[in-house]
Amino acid sequence: MRVIVIGTEYTGKTTLVQAIQKWGMGRGIRHHMDDHFSIPDQQTLTNPADQKAMTELPSAIKERFQRFQIAYHVRLVHKYQHVLLTGFHIEEMVYGQRYYYPDLARPVETPQTWEKDMPSDMILVLLTASAEVIKQRMKDDPHDYPIVPESDIEDVQAAFREEFRKSFFKQKFQIDTSNVTTYSLLHDFLKQSFPYLSAADHAIRLASSER
Known about the structure:
Largest sheet: 5 strands, parallel
Strand content: 5-15%
CATH topology: Rossmann fold
Structural class: alpha/beta
Mean pLDDT: 93
């Protein structure tokens, strides 16, 4: 299955895709996973100096880099049968002009423009959480490079909901992560994604449930 998980910072995107990855590997499925669309890229840029350098790039270079890597991954989703992407093109639409390059004009490529070139079997998942829960998670586990300030949580959540609504993808659903464990989040995802699976994916799910 091909999955894009979106949502405001601290709603659990990385937690969910890692849980799906682990679940899949236990059943002989290795998803191609990309969790590096937020600036800085902390999935593949493990050197703190590189992460810092990325945040300090000029706005025009940040915008171009983000646009180029999205274009590259649009091609990549056709290459792999099982793909997990966090944020991706929709996160860029929400975060880009707000936080990465606020002095530049709005990008020409809208999420719907990118989606026209993606496989029709993509599954879009919007993660949400109450503002109070997000604020508490910010305090409990502060990120090295936070993106969304507390004062913007409601507006950013609304922006993600609107982009989710406008998305061309037909296979989509939401999960509220305010009061869930990693196990229950994975369980909820597996339950809600079931109607959107291919015949091959259904066979894997059914075979694993019989063990």
